[in-house]
Amino acid sequence: MSPFRAGIRFVAATAAMCVSLPAGVFAQDGRPAPRARAAAVEDEYFGTRVVDPYRWMETPGSSELRQWLEAQARQTRAVLDRIAARKTLLARIRALNESTSDVYNVVQAGQRYFYFLADPKRPVAQIMRRDSVDGPARLVFDPATLKGTSGHAEAGWFAPSRDGRYLAVGIAYGGAEEAGHLRVIDVDHARLLTEDLPRVWAGPGGSASWLPDHRSFTYSQFPVLGADQTPQERIMRSRALLHTVGRNRDGAGDKPLFGFGVDPATDFAKEYINFVAIPATSDYAIAVNWTVDVDLAGVFVAPVAALAAEHVPWQRMAGPEDQIQSAPNLEVHGSDLYLVSRREAPRFRILRLDLAHPDLRRSEIVVPESERVIEDIGAAADGLYVLDLEGGLSRLRRLRWGNSTAQSLELPFSGAIRALSTHPGAPGAILRMRSRTHPNVILHVDGTSGSMRDTGWQAQPNVDFSGIDEREVMVVGHDGTRIPLSILIAKSAQLDGSHPTLLDSYGAYGTTGTAKPYFDPTLLAWLESGGAFAVAHPRGGGEFGEEWHRGGMLQTKLNTVLDTIACAQYLVDQRYTNSSKLALQGASAGGLVVGGAIAWRPDLFAAAIDHAGMSDALRTETEPTGPINVPEFGSTHTAAGFHALYAMSPYHHVRDGVAYPAVLLETGVNDPRVESWQMAKMTARLQKASSSDRPILLRVDFDTGHFGGTTEQTEQLLADEWTFLLWQFGDPRFQPP
């Protein structure tokens, strides 16, 4: 969802300054704003002494932290609710949010298509089906109908059986993705069965895989914590199991197939996430060890028929040294497996391997490396579809079976393909495509001609972006590297330094998601009112392949921060805005960018929004997702890892007596990826250190996790964010009484 969801109008003022609350406004019922108790803990890492004043916040189940979070939440709510214009803004957000729905995660099974439909008039995304490309949409499942004791229910993923009769669904309550439940739906009757398998990952990235009998599936589960294990270990030691619909409805007695402790012949690290996938139409099962690294830790193969054996005869065909990418799909056509590798190819190449003889030494290159970055692949009956990124825009190729060269397919407009969906037994493909000025469309690719047409699945908003200019520029970074920067602004805008501007940045995991344009109709109201929106593409992302990624990870992670600062400075130097009207936002790993940028250049920004952001990099390793993040950020158990983490850690670079910009920090208490103590510690440190009179507020949601939430929660969050920024940018309508 876009950072701008409101139709707002700024009052232009050439010398507008950030407006802060007068003394006393931060009091509630006569009490001062809550400040955190400091209790210094000192650690020594390879000769470097590090003091942590708020280590106590990391204590699992701390009632003191809970009370402090509740007090901060009340304080933030009281401050923002004093701004009367917030109600008008929220109403506008709601109206614009309802202008269109969103279709995503299309999966084909048999003749049926399944997908998520995010209807803003509904609390959460529903699962829909169509029995043909041109068939009517039918509701399969609405997670809002589930009642839980630990918050609202959301579906993070689904997997249909091969015949489309059943659907396995991952359900999270209150945003607790790591404590999800796997439920099964009878599709023909849109009926939830009694299956309820606990402790599955219910966020994006989870899955199940169905066997040819249409009644059995593999799934991954975390074990019950042992008495000697800490809560931080709740997503370790995963195993892939086999379940049959109607048996062992709670999963008790399901057969382990692969993973931690399953086979004495393997010794998997407890941090690995383990999956077993069975590609449609294939006689082979493929198992993988996954971390957040760009490469898979291990790839294994076994005949599907052998899954019934006491010990499945998994044959290892790739390890980390083979550099098989984890993000693109592993695709199968007949007995051939197609993989994407970065070995000797930083922009990636595609290999073909015979599953009957799974030896990478016998693989062949079917699509060599080129100037394009290979993002994903999909096997269909007519060929292998290849999704590329070139200069920030998507490209599509098809390698017909039996041909030696992939041919480019013409796209209907320049933009981003957000998802590629194929089925090995059916011709053609489904694309989800958009640009920053072109609405989302769901396209069907004809398997014979390669031509594309709009399926009509995606409702089109009645908006006109013809007056908006989309600019792609290159910014010179601190070391001379050229950094891409995307800018949206009205074509009629004069570059006079007056435009309120929000810069978004991320740059991690080698992902190209942040490189791709996205469409949000509500941006139009902001842009037509004189605002500008920009997206930085710093090193650490995957815009230019693995070399770009490696330029912003581990020991080079500070490049991500410095690249973002260079983009912010460009916006000021080129007079898009000035520092009193410039804000920076980031989320998750983007917290390293937001926190780092305001620590290095507090004078450059009027405000910042830090959503569920990594802040104390030295302690990230102790979180549930910490160990699988080591390949990306490093470990304090090595000297090189410590120095990298210490350099990138915003929490440790906040200095007493510095005039920091206004910051709105945000967390969901059920977040398993970046736990709430990260935002709590950063808030406490900034509140203690800042010498400015600008607010440092912590917004806490007690019924969400890392992202997500109901439509109402999302709208309320956006209203708070934009109210905060408008207040700090000096809009007279958004000043507290």
Please give the structural blueprint.
Blueprint: E1 41-45, E2 48-52, H1 63-81, H2 85-97, E3 102-109, E4 112-118, E5 126-130, E6 138-141, E7 153-160, E8 166-173, E9 180-186, E10 191-192, E11 197-200, E12 208-210, E13 216-221, E14 239-244, E15 255-259, E16 273-277, E17 284-290, E18 298-303, E19 315-318, E20 331-333, E21 336-341, E22 349-354, E23 364-367, E24 373-380, E25 383-390, E26 393-400, E27 407-409, E28 416-421, E29 429-434, E30 441-445, E31 452-454, E32 468-476, E33 482-490, E34 501-504, H3 523-528, E35 532-536, H4 546-550, H5 558-573, E36 582-587, H6 591-600, E37 607-611, H7 630-633, H8 639-648, E38 662-668, H9 676-689, E39 696-701, H10 711-729
Parallel strand pairs: 34-35, 34-36, 36-37, 37-38, 38-39
Antiparallel strand pairs: 1-2, 3-4, 4-5, 5-6, 7-8, 8-9, 9-10, 9-11, 12-13, 13-14, 14-15, 16-17, 17-18, 18-19, 20-21, 21-22, 22-23, 24-25, 25-26, 26-27, 28-29, 29-30, 30-31, 32-33, 33-35
